[in-house]
Amino acid sequence: MGLRPALATGLLAAAMLAAPTPSFAWGDEGHEIVATLAYQRLTPKARKAVDALLAQDKDALTKPDFVSRATWADKYRDSDRNTTKVRYTATHQWHFVDIETDGGTLQQACFGRPPLPAGTPASQGPADACAVDKLEQFRQELGDPSTPAAEKTLALKFIVHFVGDIHQPLHSADHHDQGGNAVAIEAAPSSKQSNLHSYWDTQLVQKLGGTSVPKAAATVAKLITPQNVALWFAGSIEDWAGEANAKAKDTAYNFSGEKTFVNDHGGTGEVLDTKYDARAMPVVKEALAKAGVRLANLLNDAFK
């Protein structure tokens, strides 16, 4: 499978300096593709409830529609990333569940999985929590009639985002490299350097339709067949993370046959070519399709 540390021992710090600022989610396009697919599959009752919650939400970090709100959790996290870091510190770990590929466990990746303190809204929960546990907490709030409208709106916005996050393989896996953020890459034939996490977040997704979300969503939607939907409905949120982790091992970190390069800082990186993309693109498309279907199913269940 070709799984191995991507950076030479002793050169990790230098290679990390060469990589862009770490990112923690699909790019905007990926999340908007997931939301586009999900919104199309909402029941009339669920769509009415979702639209009603978002209609009374005055938050201006994104546009107020369902698809735009799929990027809200990133905008919220980053809104004070370079200043007070209050929102950033409180929520940035909620976006991933970095299960180590060499024997890591969900328990370890989720900080021991402490329960949400009694009476504490999920939006005010501890910073040390993973995407799996936060998604379950917000799912419970969304389906609870006693949840205040303001908290239910936050739950919805976090859910729309975190379902997408968990399905990104490098959000549910780590190889002692910050989920691929510390793996320097060049996407052949370009010599422009990036990192593996960013490549999966944005560059692979944009190959589906550039920055046209409707075009990309239409491409991904071809995978949403009755047979696939029946398969994807099975499993828990924990299972979704496990699936994504397996794809990271099998595909994202599979550098079989790839060349390496040495960057200006002396770090070793991977040159990703068309053979790598041929392995990666089907995984990206399926992950986005699964996330769209599962997000719709989760919301339909919450508002049944």
Q: What are the salient characteristics of this protein?
A:
mainly alpha, nuclease, S1/P1 nuclease, endonuclease, P1 Nuclease, 304 residues, 14 helices, PLipase_C/P1_nuclease_dom_sf
How would you sum up this structure, described in words?
By secondary structure, this protein is mainly α. It has a single domain, classed as P1 Nuclease (Orthogonal Bundle). It is built from 14 helices and 4 strands. The chain has helices spanning 12-18, 28-40, 44-55, 66-69, 72-78, 86-91, 106-109, 131-142, 149-167, 196-206, 213-221, 226-232, 237-252, 274-302, and strands at residues 184-187, 193-195, 259-262, 268-272. Strands 2-1-4-3 form a 4-stranded mixed beta sheet. A hairpin with a 5-residue loop joins β3 and β4 (268-272). α2 crosses α9, α2 crosses α14 and α9 packs antiparallel against α14 (274-302). Mean pLDDT is 91; it is low at 1-24. Keywords: Disulfide bond, Endonuclease, Glycoprotein, Hydrolase, Metal-binding, Nuclease, Signal. This is S1/P1 nuclease. Residues 1-25 form the signal peptide.
